[in-house]
Amino acid sequence: MQVEVTGKTVEEAIQQALRQLGVTRDQVEIEVLESGTPGIFGIGAEPARVRVTIKNSPSTFVKGLLNAIVQFAGWDLTVEEPIVREGEIYINMEGSDAGLIIGKRGDTLNALQLIVQSAVAKRFPQSIRVVLDASKYRERRRAAIIQLALNAAEKARSQKRLVRLRNLTAAERRIVHMTLQSDPTVFTLSEGEGDNRVVIVAPMEMRDKLLRRQRTSQRTYSQKSTSQNKPENTSGMKA
Fold it and tell me: pTM value?
C-alpha cells in the first residue's frame, strides 16, 4: 500500500503520509518525487511531493489497510499495533464507533475481517490468519463462550443429560470443543446444518449412543441427497 502526499517541505509531506497510513517511519519506504522550492517571499513556491510505501510485512500491511478503510469510512476508530503470533495477526481497534464496527453478534466485524483476510491471502504466499477486534470484543466473547462451555459441562455431569448450545458461530463452536476436549467426564459434538447447527455437551457415558445416532443421521441424509440428485428416466422405459 502506498500514498503520494504533498507538503511545504519533504519532511512535512512524509509526516502527513505516516499519519495517513498509521505507521512509523521504519515501516515504510520513502521516495522523494519533488523536493519543492520555497520561492521568494512565498512567491513561486512549489510544494514537496513524496511517495510513501508500506514495507512488505503482513502485519504492517494489515494495519495500513485497516487505517485506509477506517479513514475512507469516516469511523472514529484508532487502529492499534498488531500483535503477531505464530501464523496469526491480531489487531484491535478502539473508539466511539467500536459498537458500529462490531455489529450484531460480530457480523460486521467478521465481514471486515474476511475482506482483510482475502487481501492478505492475495498479497502474501504464506498462510496467515487475520483476527480483527474492536474494544476487545472477541476476547470478551471468548471468555463468555468458555464459561458457557464449562457451565454446560457441569449441567451435563450433574443432571446426566445432554445439553444443546445454540446460536453459536463456527468459531464459537470450536472454542466450546477446545475448552472441553481435555475433560474426561464429558463429550462434545456438533450436529445440524447451517443456522440450525448446535453443539451437544453430554456425559461421557452417552458418547457411543450419540456417535451411532450421528452416523445413522449422516447415512440417511446422504441417501436422501443421492435420491434427490438421481436423474429422471425420460426414455419412457421403466427404471
Answer: 0.61
